[in-house]
Amino acid sequence: MVGCCLGLTSCGFVEKRIDQTAGGPSKPADTSVTMAWDEKEKAPVQPPSRMAQPSGPLNITTTQAILLSLTNNRSLVVEKLNPAITKTFEDTERAVFDPNVAAEISGGRTDGERQARSGSLTEDFVRNEGAGIISLAQYFPTGTTVTLEGTTEMTNSSLYQDAFYWSRLGLTVNQAILRGYGSDVNLVRLQQARLETRLSEFELRGFTQALVAQVEETFWDYALARRQVEIFEESLKVARQQVAETQALIEVGRLAKAELPAVQAELAAQEQGLINARSNRETVRLQLLRLLNPPGANLWQREVDLVYQPTLPKVKLDDVQSYVDISMQMRPLLNEARLRLMQNDLEVVKTKNGLLPVLDLFVTLGKSGYANSFGQSINNITGDYYDAFVGLRFEYPIYNRAPKSRYERAVLGLEQAEKSLQNLSQLIELDVRTAYIEVHRTRQQINASTTTRIFNEETFRVETEKLRVGKSTSLLLAQAQRDLLASRIAEVEALANYIKALIYLYSQDGSLLDRRGIAAPGREPVSLSKS
């Protein structure tokens, strides 16, 4: 009872001390992913439940699409469980330093024969025995194990008139002197587990960022697919008019019959293009619905109406180096690599200590009480009877191969992690600089494609007039119409590609979530200097 009271009194202080030494108190894993309202939207962003009726068309902006995916996307729901699962390993390592209470009670009877006290004969005896032990033990990060133990034994033999009771209260301290000495070594596994929890939070952040980027890109892919269908439908109407007009010119003798197959072939090509465009639109619609996973039945039958400004977004890019600097701080992959490096560094500390031999100092102190009753034996503990032991325990394998191999592996792993971090930093900078170039390229393509479309419209108009007066052929007109169709599609593709290039740039520098007002785990970058 005294041992339990002492242990419970010190538990709070010990846990606080361990948490401070291991890098902060335990706390729930960060799995929250929330999104703030976008002030740039003309209309207030509605919660997912109010965006559309469960069975009606889905009318969404890009911000609402992101919010829907963060709320309902099933892959994200699965991913958000990982930090909480990883946190359980941290609790497992923390439990190594938790106090442990043990109790044991036993009893028995012996009916036997022994040499008589006179020395020449034997005599029968009956002995009843009982024992009870209760202990409180705790292992400390310093490599110290403290055990407080209370023991009571009872012997009642037919050879003696009275029962005999022995009670003892003892304290045993075992201190590692070489291997396993110090909190720097003994807290390594707990520190590694906490780093693993942080790493899972950065993994969740990276997954969330990839999901947001995919939702936005699919949003604009769907907008592009819908516009392509409209362009093909408009072009098909023109192709049908050209066929009808060509037939009329043939009937009045202004064109030969040989001019008809060219415009008919162009009409068939336009019909093929429209079939493919409609199929692509439906495919992208399904992909978008999968990412958003809106509530309600008949998911795959839901129609999606996009709400967006058809004008070019006004974005002024900073110097490329600023995006590189942001990526060195915010890119989740880079922060994960830094945490892996810190874990490997701790592994070196742990395995280096494993090279040392085991040398433990142990001290045992106890006070005992003896009496003919249990209560009196407890009272007699304060008497003059005691026991005291001190000693050393040594252990060392002759070749010590296993610890040496583990240490060498840890050193090589640390070097590999350092090289991997340097390589990853270079690759990320390459990705950012490449994405930056792509933004400029797609921005310039918008003006170029618009100019091409304007000239192709004029070419088509001229060829149409020339055909009507007999100075052109239906083949040249069909070619002009095909070029106009391609340029119109290229123009809308250029606009969509520019927006997607911006999204990709923000993904590569790790700032996409912050730019969209999304709060996700891993907000604070990892600093190796502080660790």
Summarize the structure.
With 531 residues, the chain is α+β, with helices and mostly antiparallel strands.
Number of contiguous helices: 13
Task: Kindly name the structural category.
Answer: alpha+beta
Order of helices and strands: HEEHHHEEEEHHHEHHEHEHHHE
Shape-level CATH architecture of the largest domain:
Up-down Bundle
Rounded radius of gyration (Å): 40 Å
General description of the model:
The chain is α+β, with helices and mostly antiparallel strands and 531 residues long. The chain folds into two domains: 2-7 and 40-72 and 189-350 and 404-519, Outer membrane efflux proteins (OEP); 103-113 and 122-183 and 360-400, no CATH class. The chain is built from 13 helices and ten strands. The chain has a six-stranded antiparallel sheet. A hairpin with a 6-residue loop joins strand 3 and strand 4 (122-139). The longest helix has 68 residues, at 401-468. The radius of gyration is 40 Å and the shape is elongated. Mean pLDDT is 87; it is low at 1-10 and 38-46.
